[in-house]
Amino acid sequence: MLALLFWLVATIVSVGGQGAVTTARERGVPAYVSARAARAALSDADRAAWQSFRSGAAKLIGPGQRFRDDLTTAGQSLASMAAIDRGGATGRDLLRAVNAQVVTYQGLVEQADATYRQGMEELGFAYLSYASDLLHGDGGLLARIDEIARRDRQAIEERRHSAWTGTGVVIAPIAVGVVLMAALGYAQVSMARRFRRVLNVPLLTACVVLSVLVIWTTVTLVQTQRAFAHAYDKELSALDRVWQTQIAMADSGAGALRAGRSADLTGGLNVAAADRARRPLTARLADAGDTDGLTVGLPLLTLAVAGLAAMGFVLRLREYRG
Questions:
Q1: What span, in angstroms and rounded, lies between the C-alpha atoms of 234 and 59?
Q2: For this UniProt entry, which segments traverse the membrane (predicted)?
């Protein structure tokens, strides 16, 4: 009975922890990364458009190829967000509003391009200013994407600090394992006194197997918790700093160009740099999700412990009756 209880408790704790990691890896992190990518792309698109207009290149190429590439990246990121969004009706409404604002923003930039090429430069700059206001204004497009990103980051944090990924939950299977080991030890001593046999090989083997199983379970659960904590505290934060740097440089450049000042055109959206920063996070979450075969080994070794214990009792009873 105690062996069954140990298997049940250890399985529940393991499945709970893996569920938290899987949710973060397959939904939380991709949603958050997509939101940050969309934010960086739109900020960079705004800077690219202003640079094209201020330099006069807009007469030939409109807002420019970088602007178009940025909008493509933003659209792909928003599509990814919609595919994995779990924000319910409120989340869907917010995403629809964001997509609608992206369409409006693009339309204003196209209107700015059309009027600018027709020689109405002041009106073209006015339309471009309206487009930037739609991005940066209170309750604007970028603020809404930031709201989505905060929600997704909060969801990851909730998984990180859930009961299933806390240190305390590991104590439960350890406690049951220790009680079971004590019961096997007591049975070993009792039978040695009663039947005048020092060793009961099946019971002794059961104790050894149980010790290995408890250690294996503990190490695996602790490894999952530590890897998940490291992924959230270190790798995710490092990735976020990359996005934040790109966003800050793009916003700063767009603001300077809008005000008629020169701007540093380095930095801004760099998907390759963000992908490089994301790889350690992906690897760490994979480590957190690796149970090292415990899913299979736990029921098999628990069954072995129960079988060996039963065998030890049966052998002694047969000797007693014989």
A1: 46
A2: 163-186, 198-219, 294-315
Q: What is the pLDDT of residue 145?
A: 95
First-to-final CA distance of the chain? 28
**Dihedral (CA of 33, 36, 38, 44) sign:** negative
What gap in Å lies between CA 123 and CA 117, rounded to an integer?
11
Measured between alpha carbons, how far is 290 from 38 in angstroms, rounded to an integer?
31
Tokens in use for 125? Answer: 């700059």
For residue 238, pLDDT over 90 is answered with yes
Q: Are 42 and 102 within 8 A, CB to CB?
A: yes
- Based on the number of CB atoms within 10 Å of its own CB, is 83 exposed (0-12), middle (13-18) or buried (19 or more)? exposed
Say if CB 198 and CB 189 are below 8 A apart.
Answer: no
- Would you state the pLDDT for residue 87? 66
pLDDT greater than 60 at residue 217 = yes
DSSP state of 265: -
